[in-house]
């Protein structure tokens, strides 16, 4: 007879993770639109472009908080005209705090002192301003409760955001369908800061992507591919899983107004890092045609990957895929990789470490040290002091790495000896 677990025995079936992008998004900006084929709720969120001059000059590379946070009005009589007030989270721990932030804090302190002096009575005691009572006498037989005014969300068939349909057709927002908390194997269905960070770089270095053919590995919801398609000619948006790819295809359709002006084309295709070849089964919904494969190998010059370095086995698989693709492409290419350095306290080290990031850096070193082959891999970090074009929290743990793939100088083929990654 099989042993049944006791009631006090805890069995962990799955752990779920939630992206900080969704964690810090106000609840009123989350709109559930449907259930996917796995029964997971799918939400629709908007990510706003920042086109103002102030946002372009403030990069936030030192870890500033760029969330859309409501600000309080400056009290009358206080001259704080240097800039609008910022979130109190900005400049945490003193590293990213500017002189402007100190001047604002001084103004706030002055306002507090004057406000406190105005609230003292004739004896010098604090005069507390109380909330005005309701017009009718409350019923003292029941405990007091705040009034609740529920809001009923209605959804039309062709209008998932109600009265804001006209706003969605503008070039100010990207609309992304995504899930919320998911198991680790489904994190591609969420939006991560690294994808927004890489999108910022694309908009900053738009001339590097203009008219190019781009391949994104592990595209997830497709946000980075969408931004790349605003300047690139063709973008291959790749990942695995029919449900994820269908969500990505839906996001492409939701944002056709962004890619249409530049005639950018986004093709959603399946690309499994654990397999050597591409899926060419015509029965598969996101398979590769012969024309796709020919165009991919003949014209691709830029490869992208954002926030896919969280599992060592998958990191190894991605670098092997990058290595294989680099040898099949007819042109020299550049891979741009986005990663967030996540710090965790581990019992094995009894210290704060970042094992996934350390393994990622180790793979970069191995790739750069390869010798004897027809290609040379040059690795360099990207300066993060470029402007921010999308509203999100840019932290100093976000990094970009660039891998330039070029023909090796004076390469002489050695029979029977082919360099390979030892991953």
Return the CATH class of the domain at 185-407: Alpha Beta
| Contiguous helical run count | 12
Low-confidence stretches: 5-13, 52-113, 147-169
How does the helix and strand content classify structurally?
A: alpha/beta
Placed side by side, the strands forming the largest sheet appear as 8-7-6-9-10-14-13
* CATH topology name of the domain at 185-407: Rossmann fold
User: How much strand content do the residues show?
Assistant: 15-25%
> What is the β-strand count?
14
The ordered H/E elements are EHEEHHHEEHHEHEHHEHEHEEEHEE
Q: Please tell me the overall pLDDT.
A: 77
The largest sheet is:
7 strands, mixed
Annotated CATH architecture of the domain at 185-407: 3-Layer(aba) Sandwich
Query: Based on CA inertia axes, which overall geometry fits?
Result: globular
> Helical amount among residues, as a percent range?
25-40%
End-to-end separation? 44 Å
CATH superfamily of the domain at 185-407: Vaccinia Virus protein VP39
Over the alpha carbons, how many angstroms does the gyration radius reach?
26 Å
Family: Belongs to the methyltransferase superfamily. METTL22 family.
Subunit structure: Interacts with members of the heat shock protein 90 and 70 families; these proteins probably are methylation substrates.
Main location: nucleus
Biased composition (Basic residues): 87-96
């Amino acid at each position: 007879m099989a042993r049944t677990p006791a009631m006090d025995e805890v069995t962990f079936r799955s752990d779920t993770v939630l992206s900080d992008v969704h964690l810090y998004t106000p609840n009123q900006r989350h709109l559930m639109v449907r259930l996917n084929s796995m029964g997971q709720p799918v939400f629709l969120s908007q990510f706003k472009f920042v086109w103002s001059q102030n946002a372009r000059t403030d990069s936030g590379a030192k870890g500033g908080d760029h969330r859309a946070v409501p600000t309080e009005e400056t009290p009358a009589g206080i001259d704080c005209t240097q800039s609008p007030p910022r979130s109190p989270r900005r400049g945490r721990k003193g590293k990213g705090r500017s002189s402007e932030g100190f001047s604002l804090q001084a103004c706030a302190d002055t306002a507090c002192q004057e406000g406190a002096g105005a609230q003292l009575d004739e004896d010098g005691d604090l005069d507390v301003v109380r909330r005005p009572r309701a017009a009718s006498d409350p019923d003292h037989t029941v405990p007091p409760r705040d009034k609740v005014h529920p809001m009923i969300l209605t959804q039309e068939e062709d209008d998932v955001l109600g009265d804001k349909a006209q706003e969605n057709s503008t070039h100010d927002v990207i609309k992304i369908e995504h899930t919320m908390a998911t198991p680790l194997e489904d994190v591609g269905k969420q939006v991560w800061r690294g994808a927004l960070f890489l999108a910022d770089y694309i908009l900053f270095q738009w001339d590097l992507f203009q008219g190019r053919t781009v391949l994104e590995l592990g595209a997830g919801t497709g946000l980075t591919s969408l931004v790349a398609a605003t300047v690139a000619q063709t973008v291959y948006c790749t990942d695995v899983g029919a449900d994820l790819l269908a969500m990505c295809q839906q996001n492409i359709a939701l944002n056709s107004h962004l890619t249409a002006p530049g005639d950018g084309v986004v093709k959603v295709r399946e690309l499994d890092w654990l397999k050597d070849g591409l899926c060419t089964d015509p029965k598969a919904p996101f398979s590769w045609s012969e024309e796709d494969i020919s165009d991919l190998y003949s014209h691709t010059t830029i490869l992208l990957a954002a926030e896919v370095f969280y599992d060592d086995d998958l990191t190894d698989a991605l670098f092997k895929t990058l290595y294989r693709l680099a040898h099949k492409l007819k042109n020299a290419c550049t891979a741009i990789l986005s990663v967030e350095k996540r710090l965790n306290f581990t019992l094995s080290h009894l210290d704060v470490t970042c094992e996934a990031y350390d393994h990622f850096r180790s793979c970069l070193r191995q790739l750069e040290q390869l010798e004897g082959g027809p290609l040379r891999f040059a690795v360099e970090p990207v300066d993060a002091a470029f402007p921010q074009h999308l509203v999100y929290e840019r932290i100093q743990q976000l990094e970009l790495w660039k891998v330039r793939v070029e023909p090796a100088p004076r390469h002489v083929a050695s029979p029977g000896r082919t360099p390979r990654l030892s991953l």
